[in-house]
Automatic annotation (TrEMBL), chain A:
Pfam families: ATP-synt_B (PF00430). It comes from the Bacteria. InterPro entries: ATP_synth_b/b'su_bac/chlpt, ATP_synthase_B_chain. The gene is atpF. This is ATP synthase subunit b. It comes from Sphingopyxis flava. Belongs to the ATPase B chain family.
Automatic annotation (TrEMBL), chain B:
It is a multi-pass membrane protein. CDD domains: ATP-synt_Fo_a_6. PANTHER family: ATP SYNTHASE SUBUNIT A. Keywords: ATP synthesis, Cell membrane, CF(0), Hydrogen ion transport, Ion transport, Membrane, Transmembrane, Transmembrane helix, Transport. The chain crosses the membrane at residues 35-53, 89-113, 125-145, 151-171, 183-207, 213-231. This is ATP synthase subunit a. It comes from Sphingopyxis flava. GO terms for cellular component: plasma membrane; proton-transporting ATP synthase complex. One of its GO terms (molecular function) is proton-transporting ATP synthase activity, rotational mechanism. InterPro entries: ATP_synth_F0_asu (IPR000568), ATP_synth_F0_asu_bact/mt (IPR045083), F0_ATP_A_sf (IPR035908). Belongs to the ATPase A chain family. It holds the Pfam family ATP-synt_A. Gene3D superfamilies: ATP synthase, F0 complex, subunit A (1.20.120.220).
Length: 166, 261
């Protein structure tokens, strides 16, 4: 087994093995381990940092957009509330105006109504008075025609009053 | 191969052969071997792979995403096991993980089809042992440097009753000292066993078709080949898992040294 044989004292290639191993491995360590590896790791680190920064920037932009949206929302709500208030005010004012006008019209109508009622009452009174005198005449005529007796106007009037007014 | 059927040596793939370029270093002759060649190939392949991930674009392409997947895998593992201080050790653990992974995977390449001999660097205990010792040395250095002699309290787990300490401490000490061996041995054994198994099965395939009773040999060959396909897939998984286990245990051991208890 050549691997074990080289560990014995008088073997020609053990020294060569160790020498070349140390030379090659030292070369790999210096050139690749110390030279290339840190650069590659730096690239990876730079990329990781860039990704982290970009993510942070995106997060910040997201937060800013959220804040902007919130302020827009608040503005919209405020203006909507203002508009609703204005509408409510206008409605109230219109309702009050209408009420006022209605009240005025009501009063006028009431006055007209009471005037008309007074007129009617007067007309009725005069009509009743007329009916009475007509009835008195008619009653005295009827009595005169039926019995030929003349009735005194005052008697006829009393009789008619008694019938009319119960 | 047909003539020498039955003489297919499954251990031949682990032989180290010199390819030249020898020089003397402290009384030892250093040769450029096939093992060194495959280490260099792994290093170059790893370099090319990593270079493709260096475009540093904000939106990664496929290649860059693959490289960043590997780096992110190791750094998140270090972060999970050690914490923010783990970043200091990420270059070492990443180099370790990628080197072992590439060596494991390159050793699995079917280059034998092209007449080449792939060599699995991590199937040598000398290699994995040294890597484990480097990890162990880092643990010791970091532990004593950060905690001084207080680092020895690692051998007394938190909440141990006083009478138990004389028993627990030696056990913990032994388990601590065994770490580099188990770490190196695990990778070496997994790689060696898998490759030996594949070689033995491929020997069955070749010998089966060369058998004198061809119908019986063919059945053996076809069955072995089917098994090889499954085991190759398993070995690809093992290549990744063993590299991961090595890196994971290293990070856990470093965590012991960094965050004592």
């Amino acid at each position: 087994m050549p691997q074990i044989a080289q560990l014995t004292a008088d073997n020609w290639y053990l020294a060569s093995q160790l020498f070349w191993l140390l030379v090659v491995f030292a070369g790999i360590y210096v050139v690749i381990g110390r030279g290339m590896l840190p650069k590659i790791e730096a690239t990876v680190d730079a990329r990781d940092r860039k990704v982290a920064d970009d993510l942070a920037a995106a997060k910040a932009a997201h937060a800013a957009a959220d804040a902007l949206e919130e302020s827009y929302r608040q503005q919209t709500e405020a203006s909507r509330a203002a508009a609703q208030k204005a509408v409510a005010d206008a409605k109230g004012k219109a309702a009050r105006d209408a009420e006022k006008r209605l009240a005025k019209v009501d009063v006028e109508l009431g006055e007209k109504l009471s005037l008309a009622e007074a007129d009617i009452a007067a007309a009725r009174k005069s009509a009743m008075a007329e009916i009475e005198s007509v009835a008195v005449e008619a009653a005295s005529d009827l009595v005169a025609k039926l019995s030929g007796a003349k009735v005194a106007a005052a008697d006829a009037k009393a009789a008619v009053k008694a019938v009319l007014h119960g | 191969m047909a003539a020498e059927s039955g003489k297919i040596d499954p251990m031949h793939q682990f032989e180290v052969t010199p390819l030249g370029g020898g020089f003397n270093l402290g009384g030892h002759e250093i040769l450029f071997t096939n093992s060194a060649l495959w280490m260099v190939v792994a290093a170059i392949a790893l370099g090319i792979f990593m270079w493709g991930g260096m475009r540093r674009q904000l939106i990664p392409g496929r290649w860059q995403a693959a490289v960043e997947g590997f780096t992110g895998f190791i750094s998140s593992m270090m972060m999970a096991n050690i914490g923010t201080e783990g970043r200091k050790y990420t270059p070492y653990v990443f180099s370790l993980f990628m080197f072992i992974l590439f060596c494991n995977l390159l050793g699995m390449l079917p280059l034998g089809v092209l007449g080449l001999h792939p060599f699995t660097v991590t199937s040598h205990i000398a290699i994995t042992g040294v890597l484990a010792l480097i990890s162990f040395a880092i643990v010791l250095v970091v532990g004593f440097w950060r905690h001084g002699l207080h680092f020895f309290s690692l051998f007394v787990p938190h909440g141990t009753p006083l009478p138990m300490i004389p028993i627990i401490a030696p056990i913990e000490f032994v388990s601590f000292m065994v770490r580099p061996f188990s770490l190196g041995l695990r990778l070496f054994v997994a790689m060696t066993a898998g490759h030996v198994l594949l070689k033995v099965l491929s020997g069955f395939v070749i010998n089966g078709f060369n058998a004198e009773t061809l119908w019986l040999g063919s059945i053996v060959s076809v069955l072995s080949f089917t098994l090889m396909i499954g085991i190759s897939a398993l070995e690809l998984l093992v290549a990744g898992i063993q590299a991961y286990v090595f890196a994971l245990l290293t990070s856990l051991y470093i965590n012991d040294a960094v965050n004592l208890h």
